[in-house]
Amino acid sequence: MHGETDHLCRRLWTTIWRRRAPQWLAALLPMLLASRMLPATRIAMAAAITLWAICAIADGYRWKQRIAEQWQSWLNAAIPSLEDSSELLTSDAKTPIAKLQQQRLQARLASALTDADYQRIARTQARLSIWPLLLAILATGAAIAWQGQPVPTPPPPPVAAHANKPIIDGEVYLSVTPPAYTGVKPFETGARDIQIPQYTDVRWCVRNATGAEPAVELGDGHTLAIGKDCAKLRVEDSLFWRVRGTSATRYNIRVTPDQAPQVSIIEPTELIHLLQKDAKSVQISVSARDDYAIVRASLHMTLARGSGENIRFSDKEVPLPQSSDPKSRSWEKQWTLAELGMEPGDELYFFVRATDNAPENPHTAQSPTYTLRLPGPEAESLDSTALPSMSKPENLRSQRQIIIDTEQLVADLKANPGMPAATQRSRSEGIAADQAALRLRYGQFLGEESSLFGDEEHEHEHHGQEKAGSEISVMKEFGHAHDVEDNATIFDPQTKAVLKRALSAMWDAEKSLRAVSPKTALPPEYKALDAIKELQAAERVYLHRTAFVPPALKEEKRMTGDIVGAMSYKRAQGAASDTVPAEVRDLVQALSQDGALPALWSKAAREAIAARISDQEQKLSAQRAVQDVQDGCVPCRAELRAWLRGTLTDAPVLLQARPLADTPFRQAWSGKEQAK
C-alpha cells in the first residue's frame, strides 16, 4: 500500500507543479530581458534571479509537504466513490469491517482516479497567483532606475593628517618631541602644518646644509637662527613659521592644550537625594576621564550628625580604583549605610576630585557636592528646628498633634452625626486655642506679639486704665503694637518666607476651627506641617572650607622689629585707567592711512593680539596680517586694522565736537536770528 500511496503523491505533486511553473517562468522573463538589454544591471539581475530560484525551490518544497499531509482529504472531496475512507489506504486495518472496506477501496482506486481527477484537484488547491510576476517587475524597474542615475565618483583619498613629509637635503625639517607624559611618540617631518600637544619641544634643523645658515621667522615676531645644533623652541601657544628670504610659504603649528579631567557623578542623579526611612543601602556611581592619564582620583565624603549648634562633621577620603585604561576611572558600588556610618537624621556630602599626570602644572577637577539625606524621627516640637531654642510651655502642642486631634474630631462627627452642637464647638475651640498658641510661638520670630482673639497670655494690667469700649482700649486689648518685622529677626529672607507661609496656613486652620469646620481646617494644617518640616530640613548647611590661610612667617624675622620689604596696608587711590593703550589707538589711526606707521608698531600689535584674542585660529590670522603689513603689503593694513579694532571691545565712547568756521555770513545770520 505504501508504494501505491507514494506513486499517488508523486503524481499529485507533478500535476500541481505543472500548474505553478508558468507563474514562475513569467516572473523570470522580465529579469532575463533586463539583463540582456541593459548590461549595467546584470549584477543586480543576477542577484534577483538567484533570489527567484531560491523562492521557486522553496515553493516546490512547500507544496510537497502539503501534499504529504492533506492528500487524503483532497481525494475524499474530489472522488465521492471513495466514501470518505481514503485514510484506510495508508493504515493497517485491524477489524474485519475495516479490512473489507480497504479491499473495496483498492479495487476502486485504479478505475476511479484518472488524469482528469488529478488536474481537477490541482485547479482546486493550487490557484493562480500574480505575486511572483509583480515582484519581478518591481525589481526590474528598480534596477533600471538605479542604472539611469549617474554613478558618483569616489572622492580622492584624504591626505593623512599625521603622515610625515619626506626630508630633503638642504631644506628645513622639524624634529618634534612631545612631553613624555602625553604618550605621543617623537617624530621628524618636512616643512608642513602639524598638530602637537602643549609644551612640545620643536627643533628646526637642516640636513646637509649648503650655503648660508637659514633663519626661521615665527608668528610672534621672534627669529630663530638655525645653526649646527638646530633652533629649539618650547611651544605653548599656536603659531606659524616660515623660512626667511627663501619662501613666502607659512606653516602652522597648532597646539592642543592639556585639558583638565572631566569628573561626574552618575548615581544618584539628584543633588539632594532623600533616602527612604527603611533604606539599608545606596548606589553611588562615579567616573573620571582625562585626555592623557589620571594619576589620582578620590571620593571625598563628609558625614554630618546632630542638630542645632551640636553638629559634628567627619571627613573620609576613598581612592577610586584604577582601571586598564589610564585615561579613565569608573567606580560603581552599592554602599551599605553601615559602611557610610549613616544613622537616621544624618546627612552625607560627597564629591569626586581627580588630578591628571601633567608634571609641572597638574590640573585638578572637582564635581559638584551631592547630598544623601536619611530622614530621622519626626520632631514633635520646635526644639529640633533651626529656630532659636526657647522654653517650651507644658500645654503647648505640636502641629502634628493638632492634626491628629482635628482628624479625630472629623471621624467622631462622621460616626456620630447627632453630636451636640455645644460639644462640637467646645472641642473645635480647644483645638483652635492650641493652634493659636503654636502660631504665636512661631510668630515671635517675625516680631508678632499679640493674638487676634486676645489670649490671656497677652493681658496686661494697663488694659483696665482706659475707658471700657473706647477705641484705644479695644486696640490695646486686641492689637498691641508690633515690632518691625524685618528688624525683629535675624533670619535670612528664605527662612522668613517659610515662616510666613507656616503662619498663614495656621491662620487659615484657626479660622476654620473657630467656625466649627474641622474638615476644612485639615488642608491648611498640613501646609503648616510641610513648612515646619522644610525649616527642620534647612537647619544644616554644608559649605566647603574656604578660610584664608596666611603665609608662614619667617622665624628669623620674628621679634626683630625689621620691617624692610613690608608693604603698607594702605593703598593709594589710583586714577581712572584707560582700557585702550595709547600705542594701539595711534596704530589703528595710522593704519587707516598710507603713511608711515609708528615706531615699534609690530610689537604693540602682537602684544594686543596675544592679550585680547583667545581663539587660536583668529590669533593665527591676526598674526599673519601683522607679518603681511610688515612685509610691505599696503592693502593688508585694512585687515590688520579690523583685527585691532575687534580687540577693543571695552573701549569707552568718546564724544568729539565738530569744528565750525566762524565766517562773516554766519555772523550776519546769527545777528538776524537774535533780532527776531
From TrEMBL:
<protein>
    <recommendedName>
        <fullName>DUF4175 family protein</fullName>
    </recommendedName>
</protein>
<feature type="transmembrane region" description="Helical">
    <location>
        <begin position="128"/>
        <end position="146"/>
    </location>
</feature>
<feature type="transmembrane region" description="Helical">
    <location>
        <begin position="43"/>
        <end position="61"/>
    </location>
</feature>
<keyword id="KW-1133">Transmembrane helix</keyword>
<keyword id="KW-0472">Membrane</keyword>
<keyword id="KW-0812">Transmembrane</keyword>
